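Is this the right way to post structure tokens for a design question? Let me know if I should format differently. Anyway, here goes:
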């Protein structure tokens, strides 16, 4: 399966790619299915299962599902229009679905949180139904939000499992493991970014690829800037204060002073990441990288590189993001990028591996050094749980992105000090992440039933 750079990095909305963007996309897909069917629906109903039920309110899954059924999609999300639409649906108990007319939908009765066992295909499952005038189901579909905004129907999920062992994508360099990636790089004499670029050009023009990459960075950069300029309290009830603006103001005041300690550079990296994740927590526009919960790591490392590393050039942004996407694709293909499936090792861990690889690439690292950087970053996130307090993507998520960025830079730096030879391969590390996630207790996988989520007061 070919995973594009635009699959790994998507423009969307906070606070969660799997719990907000995914359900919105699933609901919009159901509308398409309903439009193509011969049935005339009178109403809609949705059941949320597994992690989507346990942490759905904190992740705005309920809002996202309703808005998706009303025709909203993450790419073109309009916050002001969304609020008006939600208010109208709550008051009238009717959804005006594009191309389908007015359909009955009572948010209090037709959006059901099922706290029983998760559906068999994935921890993030939902079932959407169309009903007739008598309330009987005339059409239904099961969707799985598998992380990073990716959504599969139950049939597609089953098919993707069987396809993993069959065939390869029709691209020039169809690597499905880090070992294959390095072997192809040695045989071709190309960098990882160059191979990834060749694969992308199989499906789009060079102009479209470059324009798309430029837009991704623009959205990332704008998100950092907004986050550093805004203060106040984040929504959700925990009363978490935005800190990025205060940190930024203090760092700017200290610039040029002899008293500034060398380790202050870590504060800049944390600042950039926290700015993104505070915007994400507030429901702002972010780029999944590879998820919303880990959206701050890659942009923070890029901004650190551009603003603090001598010789950095925006002309290399494509190499950074293409390399990062290649590593993210390996994590997703061979393990997971979903916190509900493998814990936060799959989100911030994968993001750190992607960022470390991208940084090593633009610093002039060989493919072996790039792979080493990714492995170091991921290895030291193994076992990390996903235990958001009150189900919100705030604690520990915001600070965790800052530390993920610092680890990514440290991993790239260590790798660049070596020649690429190392004991633990990236493939072994990714497989270990998969196994660890499989063994991890469900209460530590985005259900808010364990860890910090139960040991920190939720009010």
């Amino acid at each position: 399966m070919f995973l594009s750079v635009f699959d790994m990095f998507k423009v969307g909305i906070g606070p969660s790619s799997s719990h907000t963007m995914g359900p919105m996309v699933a609901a919009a897909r159901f509308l398409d299915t309903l439009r193509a069917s011969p049935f005339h629906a009178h109403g809609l109903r949705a059941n949320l299962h597994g992690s989507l039920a346990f942490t759905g309110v904190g992740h705005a899954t309920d809002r996202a599902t309703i808005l998706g059924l009303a025709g909203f999609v993450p790419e073109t999300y309009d916050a002001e229009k969304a609020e008006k639409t939600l208010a109208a649906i709550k008051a009238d108990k009717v959804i005006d679905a594009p191309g389908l007319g007015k359909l009955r939908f009572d948010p209090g009765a037709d959006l059901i949180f099922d706290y029983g066992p998760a559906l068999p295909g994935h921890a993030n499952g939902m079932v959407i139904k169309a009903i007739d005038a008598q309330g009987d189901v005339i059409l239904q579909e099961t969707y799985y939000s598998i992380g990073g905004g990716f959504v599969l129907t139950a049939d597609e999920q089953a098919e993707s499992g069987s396809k993993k062992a069959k065939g390869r994508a029709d691209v020039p360099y169809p690597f499905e493991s880090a070992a294959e990636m390095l072997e192809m790089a040695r045989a071709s004499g190309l960098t990882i970014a160059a191979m990834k670029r060749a694969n992308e050009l199989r499906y789009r023009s060079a102009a479209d690829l470059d324009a798309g990459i430029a837009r991704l960075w623009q959205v990332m950069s704008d998100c950092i800037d907004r986050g550093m300029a805004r203060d106040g309290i984040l929504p959700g009830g925990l009363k978490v204060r935005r800190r990025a603006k205060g940190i930024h103001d203090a760092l700017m005041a200290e610039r040029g002073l002899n008293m500034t300690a060398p380790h202050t550079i870590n504060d800049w990296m944390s600042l950039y990441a926290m700015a993104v994740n505070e915007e994400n927590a507030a429901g702002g526009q972010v780029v999944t990288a590879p998820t919303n919960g880990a959206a701050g790591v890659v942009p923070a490392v890029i901004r650190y590189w551009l603003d603090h590393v001598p010789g950095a050039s925006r002309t290399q942004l494509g190499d950074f993001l293409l390399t990062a996407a290649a590593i993210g694709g390996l994590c997703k293909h061979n393990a997971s990028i979903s916190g509900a499936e493998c814990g936060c090792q799959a989100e911030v861990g994968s993001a750190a591996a992607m960022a470390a690889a991208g940084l090593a690439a633009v610093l002039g690292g060989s493919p072996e050094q790039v792979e080493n950087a990714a492995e170091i970053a991921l290895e030291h996130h193994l076992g990390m749980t996903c235990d958001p307090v009150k189900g919100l993507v705030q604690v520990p998520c915001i600070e965790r992105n800052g530390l993920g960025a610092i680890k990514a830079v440290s991993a790239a730096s260590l790798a660049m000090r070596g020649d690429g030879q190392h004991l633990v391969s990236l493939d072994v590390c990714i497989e270990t992440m998969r196994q660890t996630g499989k063994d991890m207790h469900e209460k530590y996988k985005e259900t808010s039933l364990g860890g910090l989520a139960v040991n920190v007061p939720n009010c």
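Format looks fine. Someone answered above. Worth noting: Strands lie at 10-13, 43-50, 94-97, 101-104, 111-113, 124-131, 137-147, 150-153, 285-288. The mean pLDDT is 95.
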